[in-house]
DNA sequence: CTAAAATAGTTGCTATTGCAACTAATGTCA
DNA sequence: TGACATTAGTTGCAATAGCAACTATTTTAG
């Protein structure tokens, strides 16, 4: 009856704790300051980068399931943080952009986000940060190939 | 209206994607092969390591909220994967252990888990794996200090 | 010794999740 | 052209999450 696994040292578990801790901290700030969820923020973030894309493209870029995207977009539309057009050439598709208000909020949240990233990485040297970044890229790419 | 943030390159986001991808893959296997959720598995894993601890200690060790722990334990008790005693010296506390069946399942899942860990890390050299492990430790420790 | 505070665990309630079914529009191919 | 498949987006529903309130004990202080 020896323990066969040390959960505390199990890498997927540790990665999950770290990621959740960071996400929760950031989420709390977005929620407290802007009443916006992480899902909503990710939608706004990709629309800041790719104005005019469809809900489906938002789903692909954020890796968020399309029903969540649909509901989050409704909410953001109600709050007038987004604008939606129906595409001329394909009436199923929407064309989404940040509204003026939405862009103002975006401009406020972005520096906050970057500051969080900086803070979380602050215990690592510049070089270590680059190593980490590259390791994550490689692991992500590899993980894709495993979980087909 | 320039994009101010590249979500794809935002580290907390990338970390979250990686962690979710791994967790989902592992979770699917546990669910398909053993009809066990990640929460249930984490409970079993800490009980394999620390037989006889209380629900509260399980909650602390897994970082899972105590109502989730309570409900998951009920389920595991119904399936006879755990045994529960009321502590003699403190009648509020439970003393939880894996049942014989529970331990058998544990013994089956552990090698599977370790194999997943190995597979996900397989694209890194031994040395890189150690670097990653140490970076995660340092980031986790630092993240704790930030989000007080 | 006793009243108040703290702790272990359970349960109620609401919000979020995510799959699947559905509608509407477009694409494919005989 | 016209049936069939595919795609974009929405909605229904069941499962899960997590906060807060509650019960039952135990601990602490006066």
From TrEMBL, chains A, B:
Q: What keywords would UniProt list here? A: DNA-binding, Transcription, Transcription regulation
Q: Provide the GO MF annotations for this entry.
A: DNA binding; DNA-binding transcription factor activity
Annotated Pfam families? MarR_2
Name the Gene3D superfamilies on file.
Answer: Winged helix-like DNA-binding domain superfamily/Winged helix DNA-binding domain
Q: Which residues form the HTH marR-type domain?
A: 8-141
Q: What is this protein called?
A: MarR family transcriptional regulator
């Amino acid at each position: 009856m020896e323990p066969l696994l040390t959960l505390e040292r199990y890498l997927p578990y540790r990665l999950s704790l770290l990621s959740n801790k960071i996400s929760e901290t950031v989420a709390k700030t977005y929620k407290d300051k802007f009443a916006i969820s992480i899902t909503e923020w990710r939608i706004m973030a990709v629309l800041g980068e790719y104005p005019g894309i469809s809900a489906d493209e938002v789903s692909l870029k954020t890796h968020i399931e399309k029903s969540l995207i649909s509901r989050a977009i409704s909410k953001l539309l109600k709050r007038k943080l987004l604008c939606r057009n129906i595409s001329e050439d394909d009436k199923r598709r929407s064309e989404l952009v940040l509204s003026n208000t939405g862009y103002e909020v975006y401009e406020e949240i972005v520096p906050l986000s970057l500051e969080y990233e900086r803070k979380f990485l602050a215990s690592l040297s510049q070089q270590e940060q680059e190593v980490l970044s590259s390791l994550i890229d490689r692991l992500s790419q590899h993980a894709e190939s495993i979980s087909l």
